[in-house]
Amino acid sequence: MSQTPTSILSVDQWVDDVLGNAKFNSPAAHASAYAPSNIALSKYWGKREVNFNLPVTGSVSISLAEHGTKTGLSVVDAPQHDITLNGEEVDASQSFAIKLSQWLDRVLPNNLKLRVDTYNTVPTAAGLASSASGFAALTLATNSLMGWQLPEHKLSALARLGSGSASRSLWHGFVKWQAGEQPNGSDSVAFLLKHQWPQLRVGLLTVSSQKKAVSSREGMARTIATSALYKQWPEQANSDLTVIETAIEAGDFETMAGTAENNAMSMHATMAAAWPPLVYWQPDSLTQMHKVWQLREQGLPLYLTMDAGPNLKLLFEAKHQSDVEVAFPEVQVITPFG
Ligand code: DP6
User: CB count, 10 Å around CB of 227?
Assistant: First the structure.
């Protein structure tokens, strides 16, 4: 899994092939774009190739409507990109700035530097990952600034180079990222599923908004290298993906949400079996999980999913929103198809 000069070169080569002559277009004065954050119902956990961010399995997500990232771009005459986050300068040495700059240097003509103003519309306290919406918004804004006019599947692949889950954040609604087979990831792209579910609700339950100690990237690598349970993960993830996609088409909430919860629990089990153990849950996460299970036993169709962090995302339908709000007064409710 180590980064070899050859594979780094081939990512640059692939980017040049995708952009062609458009790479040298003159930039517009300014461009901006918005992309929603997303939550995987069937998770991406594990890379088959690290430089192109290629996943071991496909995944399916639901986008979080107005919770996402807005990015504004303009050209600057400066030696490096000038990056702000929510109105504050980000130091070039911070990993956020390094990752954004690396992506930009890969896709822009030599020496073109940008001012990048990033606003997360996700309240910081929600503890939601912003790398997915961040790289998706950056990809869309750069496409517009540079006049690339790329088709969506190519934009999805470019966003993936920044962060895997960003490949799914270009659309609102249910999105499927297919694993693909090509070594350069040209077929590892996401697309919008046409089914809509206006009654679906996602509830954000924040346990902690602190930055996670182990990044997804590092956590995935550790799980693959050391967790004996990871052997069964690809098979389950592929099967869950099919079950969830079918349940979405059928409007079968219990199957969709129940499979999503089991998928998340299984992902966390494979992480816990890694060495050193990888446990993103906090004591309060477990308290909230038990509360969800208790309410479900009492008859409330309420399910949970969790990513690489301590926070819960609740899945339920509009008819149960007031019950959920009574049980969890702090919940933030999102209407994905609002
Ligand atoms: C648990 O997309 O953040 O949220 O590709 O290394 O940037 P990188 O990882 P990232 O991982 C997301 C992991 C997850 C599951 C998911 O969103 O599918």
Answer: 20
Report d(CA 230, CA 245) in Å as an integer.
23
Which residue in the block uniquely carries the two structure tokens 């990044």? 215
- The rounded distance, in Å, linking the Cα atoms of 305 and 212 is 17
CATH number for the domain whose boundaries are 200-334:
3.30.70.890
What is the pTM for the complete model shown? 0.96
pLDDT tens-digit profile of 9-53? 699 999 999 999 999 999 999 999 999 999 999 999 999 999 999
Instruction: Give the distance (Å) from ligand 1 centre to CA of residue 163.
Output: 7
- Best mutation site among 130, 160, 165, 307 for ligand 1, i.e. most ligand atoms within 8 A of its Cβ? 165
Q: Which residues line ligand 1 (CB under 6 A)?
A: 40, 43-45, 53, 59, 129, 131, 163-165, 216-217, 307-308
CATH class of the structural domain 8-192: alpha beta
Residue 24 Cα to ligand 1 midpoint, Å, equals 31
Q: How far is the CA of 165 from the centre of ligand 1 (A)?
A: 5
Do the first three CATH levels of 8-192 and 200-334 match, i.e. the same topology?
no
Beta bridge partners of 325: none
Domain range summary for the chain, segments of one domain joined by +: 8-192, 200-334
Q: What is the 3-state secondary structure (H, E, C) of 137-194?
A: HHHHHHHHHCCCCCCHHHHHHHHHHHCHHHHHCCCCCEEEECCCCCCCCCCCCEEECC
Collect all residues with Cβ–Cβ distance below 8 Å to 185 and sequence separation of at least 6: 14, 49, 52, 53, 54, 157, 160
Span from the CA of 326 to the centroid of ligand 1 (angstroms): 31
Which atom of ligand 1 is nearest to 267's Cα? 1
